[in-house]
Amino acid sequence: MNDLEKVQHLIEHWIEHEQEHAADYEAWAEKIKDLEDGKDIADTLKSAAQKLRESVDCLVALRAHHH
User: Fold this and answer.
1) What is the reported pLDDT for 67?
2) pTM of the model
3) Sequential DSSP letters for 4-66
4) What's the CA angle centered on 9, arms 56 and 28, to 5 degrees?
């Protein structure tokens, strides 16, 4: 397997992995949003999840372009 084939395989892994992390961040944000001092952390977790989802969008577009 050459490096290009490896990257194409890794893209699939990265998409799945980042989607899982984004979902985890959102779930934890929901759990703590109403706790004392939890809102700021929850807001930051939601922001991080959104950035991961944007990253996933880039990877999905890359995958679509090269298949």
Assistant:
1) 65
2) 0.86
3) HHHHHHHHHHHHHHHHHHHHHHHHHHHHHTTSTTHHHHHHHHHHHHHHHHHHHHHHHHHHHHT
4) 35
